[in-house]
């Protein structure tokens, strides 16, 4: 995979897409919250749907359904699942 293709954020994914988390760019409390929710590097996530206006974004991660704000989704980088 080339680097451009492999680094997009959850925010740029469409419902029905799956990906593997590569990096969490958030810092501080937001980063800790994402990690606590189970969004960890090398974890698979599926985008289920987005709310009105594109947020929140509903994802499934390790069996849990999570709602992410745009800013949160933008701070999680992913690569397409092989």
List segments where confidence is low: pLDDT < 50 over at least 5 consecutive residues: none
Give a quick account of the main beta sheet: strands, pairing sense, barrel closure: 6 strands, antiparallel
What is the share of helical residues? 10-25%
Share in β-strands? 35-45%
User: Which radius of gyration do the C-alpha atoms yield?
Assistant: 11 Å
Structural class: alpha+beta
- What is the count of β-strands? 6
Q: Which sequence of strands runs across the widest sheet?
A: 1-6-2-3-4-5
Q: Can you walk me through this structure?
A:
The structure is a single chain. The chain has 82 residues and is of the alpha+beta class. The protein has helices spanning 3-6, 28-36, 70-74, and strands spanning 8-9, 18-24, 44-50, 57-61, 64-68, 76-80. It has 3 helices and 6 strands, in the order H-E-E-H-E-E-E-H-E. The longest helix has 9 residues, at 28-36. It is 22% helix and 38% strand. Strands 1-6-2-3-4-5 form a 6-stranded antiparallel beta sheet. It is globular and about 30 Å long.
């Amino acid at each position: 995979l080339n680097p451009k293709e492999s680094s997009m954020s959850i925010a740029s994914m469409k419902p029905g897409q799956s990906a593997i988390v590569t990096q969490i760019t958030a810092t501080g409390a937001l980063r800790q919250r994402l990690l606590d929710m189970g969004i960890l590097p090398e974890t698979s996530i599926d985008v289920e749907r987005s709310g009105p206006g594109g947020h929140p974004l509903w994802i499934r991660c390790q069996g849990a359904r999570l709602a992410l704000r745009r800013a949160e989704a933008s701070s999680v980088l992913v690569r397409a699942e092989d």
